[in-house]
UDP-N-acetylglucosamine pyrophosphorylase 1, like 1
Amino acid sequence: MPSLQQIRTALDGSGQAHVLRFWPELGSEQQEEFLRELAQLDLPRLEEHCRAAAEAAAAASCAPDRDLEPNLEPVPPESMGSVRTSDPDCLAGWEREGFLQISRSRVAVLLLAGGQGTRLGVRYPKGMFDVGLPSGKTLYQIQAERILKIQQLAENRLGSKCTVPWYIMTSEFTLKPTQTFFQENAHFGLQPSNIVMFEQRMIPAVTFDGKVILEGKGKIAMAPDGNGGLYQALEDNGVLEDMERRGVEFVHVYCVDNILVKMADPLFVGFCVAKGADCGAKVVEKAHPAEPVGVVCRVGGVPQVVEYSEIRPETARLRGSAGELVYSAGNICNHFFTRSFLQDVVETFKDQLKPHVALKKVPFVDSCGNQVKPTEPNGIKMEKFVFDVFPFSRSLVVLEVQREDEFSPLKNADGAPSDTPSAARNALLAQHCRWAAAAGAALLDEQGNGIQMLPSSSAENHPALKCEISPLVSYFGEGLELLKGKTIRTPFILDGAAAAELQA
């Protein structure tokens, strides 16, 4: 670890001498902790980072929007698949291919879990959040049980025991709470050796004039470098080498907050493998032209995600011959990568990723040492996005899935217009009710009234339904023949014990 004098010299040389302004006021333990934090900074590149952040923020505030219109085009049909419109035989073939790869232990899942649940009103990792399901399961537990089930399904189909390793990218904020949570819950039945947690880098928040922000007298305001920090973290933590040792060739990457995510989805994996893709994206059809989601498309023949604000309204409203939106592929941060592509990114492309500017309200201490909570943005956080690597793909494919089956993000506390715990809970329960009805069960509400569930029924249609099916019983609606002819009165939880009782 560098000495205090070495750190002081480096800070002075990068124009950040103010960072040690309150050093004499700190106790010995605080000084020791602060010194450890400072030693972890990339001090040789600190000046460059601060200058680049200030310049990028200034440029973003005055630069005209880039004009993408002349070069904008949708993903070509040969690179698209859809659970709604693709040939059923193709869908079945893709699923078989996916199960084959899973059965050979060639598929891993990688969770992006570096953020806290601040917007949810909690200070612990989002994966530990309970949205209020009848079972009380957290997002982490639901996802772990889906891994267990997909392993079991692959083993049953192809007769060979397999493993789907779970890689979890955390941050300084989420690593220890996540490790403790998994230990306290016996890793939710998974082998601890098949769960690999690793940290992404933290970078300092910077003022508009390029100065590192002090969160406290002995603490820098730090933030994860965005989910696109994945690629640097893969290198820092030797994750790709671990994948190679395990024989992993294909990686399913997703965000922690989607309660409907299909872990190691065999259909998606098989689709990408069958198409010879090095990179894949799941998308949902945009709800309407102005929906504020990024769109997977091409710019000048190069695949990328274009922000909704960069597409003119008249372009967003364009429709095809069947009435469908031309630019309809809404990005949901659900991706496929080959390990070799990730290796190429780490070795060749990661330093070409351009950070995005985020202006934030960052609490700080002023020159007198007073704590200040700003009411307006006062700081710059530079972050990268996981999809920033799309332009480097030699063969990117896109699979459109049903929103009500695969996408319900958890971002805001209840009371917000969307993406709340109630919305996520209701989306999952409505899905499970559809599964039960499709299996031949008769559904009753709490008053004993019959409920008709249509294939497209959503949480908005039946917000009070409480039929929960454990992932250990069914991964995606399969294996529910035991419900045929049964009458189910909600609330109802179909777990292993309930399934055994119904079969008795």
In short: Residues 425-503 form a domain with the Seminal Fluid Protein  PDC-109 (Domain B) fold (CATH 2.10.10.100). The mean pLDDT is 92. The chain is about 30% helix and 20% strand.
